[in-house]
Amino acid sequence: MFGQRNASGFRFPTAPVAVAENVAVVLTDEAAITSMPGEELRVEPLVAEDDLVAQGQPVFRLRAQPRIALTAPISGRVARIELTPGRKLSQLVLFREGEERYSHTRQTRNEVELRSLLQGAGWWRTLRSRPFGRMPAVDERPAAIFIMATDTRPAAPDPQMALAGREDDFAAGLKALSRLTSGTLWLCLPASAGQAAAEGVRQIRCARLHPQGLAGIQIHHWHPARIDAPVWDIHAEDVADLGTLLTTGLLPDTRLISISGEALQEQRLLRCSPGSDLRALVHGLVRPGPHQLLTGPALQGQATHWLGARDRQVSVLPGAATATHRHWFSAALRRAARPLPVIPTAALNQAVGGDIPGVALIRALASGDSETAVRLGALSLLEEDLVLTDYITGAQPAVSWQLRAMLDGIEAEEALT
Amino acid sequence: MIRGIWDREMVALMLLAAVMPMALIWLWYGGTAALSRLLLTLLVAGIWHLLFMLIRAQPPSFAGALTALAVAMLAPVELNLFQLVLGISFGVVMAELVMGGWGRNVLNPATVTLAFLGFGFPAAAWPDLPLPVAWAAIPAALMGMLAGVIPVHILLAGLLTAALALGAGLPVEPILPVAGLVLVLLVADPVASASTRAGGWMNGQLYGALMTLFAMYWEQTSPVQMAVSAALLASLAAPILDEIAIATWLQRRRGRLG
Question: Does the residue B231 lie in any domain?
């Protein structure tokens, strides 16, 4: 096969392996809908503070695309709705109350109805469209969809475990996804998985090494995204959720996540609702002393209160960020007028997956040369695909931020034409 | 968020650690004369790094020590103090510091220094390196490759070319020790060499081919001068080799992805 020769990366510890039946379900008393970093959700609230909502009930509508709704992750009472100027979503917090679940209509005779169901049920947000990594527009048709049934991020939960026992839902989800595109469905599996071939789906075996299990690396290799031919990617568990939604009308209320990090007494795999309260999730697991709670993998996580919309990992790192006072001479030795350059090493080439010319890409990003960066495949990549490079090289400013800035620039340019 | 270790200074320190076998053997055979030369080159390179830090807020790098070591080992022997200082200053300032410091340079400062000294003062004799120093290049290369700070493909391509030349019966045997030492010390510099895999292969082969050519046709000169000239030319060609490598990679991708 192409590219397996070039599939390089790093071996990271994986999430603790638990038997699927033993995964505990942890329901927190609070949960929230928040916007992800860099995501701009201009919303119109459909509920007011102190209203009772059911799990899966639409609570926001996007102002620009009213057909897309955001739904409540748990059933409960709306504690507060915080919007920033411009009616951008900051957060909506819910207190758990009752066991109500909102049932969506299951009419999906044609693609329009299918799309409006997915958009109205709040499922649309689990899709991510490249280039630029936004939620796809209402009527966008992708050139391909990548379904990630593998995850090589350090300590990430195994998607295969999330899929165990849900094969029928997963198959139904795949079938529905294939109605959204005229292109190919690509199913990215770990090398060890013995999944039977589904019809009309191309399977990719990804190496166990990080970053081979990231969507960006696989998209770059198999079906690069272009501005006129966007490529979607989605986690396999969300595809199974889609299947459940289509067969029952109910959106599943939990997902498999892992809790890891050095400030923990033990790593854990558990099921919880999206947007769960992180402090409640790690309660009783953390070692004494100051610690930081991050949603997402330790390489990329954001310090916050709530589990992110797309995150399946919680990282607990020891220590709090404190300012250190350095002598001016040592500061002069370390702090440059311009940031220090990145030195090409074998580690750097492995960190970008082995196929992309990493040094050329980093130089193009640092010099703002968007033409070269696009030629090298920047449109298929997102921040998450370069955080390993940041980790390896300690680049300042972070390469992933530079990529985001460049993508934003390209997006703004495209909007003008 | 957590951060890894392979920043610029870590790479420079690993490179320094890797070349230690060569440096120690060279000092062992060279004695106090070698030591004083190394101290002088370290001092001059250090002063320039310090000046650029104070005036331009450009942090100094341990790579300056690497340059100093290479210059001390390979520079012509009969130079007076002024000539040596002039040469190092030219190399360190013009090839590295004015570009923004190590990592932003196009050419290896030691290569530039040595080429400058060689062509500027052609009367001075090149050093005659003891054979064990060249043997010490092997553990140095292995350590560098293991840590990932020395590009593997350049070394392999250089070795391959040497083996081909030997196999073809070309008269390269007398220059092999110096060629190998310069390959590890100057050519396989992670910054000034080709950064892509295919580019690295071409870069190493170019160096090997130039050395073979010089060994056959460049008479009345020292192997060190041949090696330094070949290193300079190979390093100058590195960006275009990278361009070729990326162009062929894009071509292959277009062919595969349509």
Answer: yes
B232 and B173 share a domain?
Answer: yes
For A59-78, the pLDDT digits (tens) are 999 999 999 999 999 999 99
How far is B166 from B178, CA to CA, in rounded Å? 15
Report CB contact under 8 Å: B2, A338.
no
* Residue A149 vs residues A175, A238, B235: alpha-carbon distances, Å: 16, 10, 44
Indicate whether B48 belongs to any domain.
yes
A336: which chain B residues are within 8 Å (Cβ-Cβ)?
57-59
- The predicted-structure confidence for A128-157, as pLDDT tens digits, reads as follows 998 999 999 998 999 999 999 988 888 888
Q: Which residues of B have a CB under 8 Å from any CB of A?
A: 1-9, 11-12, 53-54, 56-60, 100-104, 145, 148-149, 151-152, 190-191, 195-197, 242, 245-246, 249-250, 253, 256-257
Which pLDDT tens digit goes with each residue over B222-247? Answer: 999 999 999 999 999 999 999 999 99
- Is the separation of the CB atoms in B235 and B227 below 8 Å? no
How many CB atoms are closer than 10 A to CB B143? 18
| pLDDT for res A10 | 77
Query: What is the reported pLDDT for A4?
Result: 44
How close A193 gets to chain B, by Cα (Å)?
Answer: 26
Q: Are residues B94 and B184 in the same domain?
A: no
Same domain, B120 and B30: yes
Minimal C-alpha gap between B53 and chain A (Å): 7
- Whether residue B124 is found in the same domain as residue B193: no
- The answer to whether residues B196 and B112 belong to one domain is no
Nearest in space to A380 (alpha carbons), one of A252, A217, A228, A270? A217
Query: Residue B199: is its pLDDT beyond 90?
Result: yes
B93 and B175 belong to one structural domain? no
Query: Domain count of chain B?
Result: 2
Kindly report the pTM of this predicted structure. Answer: 0.90
| Co-location of B125 and B171 in the same domain | no
Closest-CA distance of chain B to residue A21, Å: 32
- Rounded Cα distance, A334 and B10, in Å: 13
pLDDT at A155: 87
> Residue B165 sits in which domain range?
151-258
Indicate if B103 and B158 belong to the same structural domain.
no
**Residues whose CB is less than 8 angstroms from the CB of residue A176 and which lie 6 or more positions away in sequence, other chains included:** A108, A114, A242, A243, A246
Q: Does residue B134 fall inside a structural domain? A: no
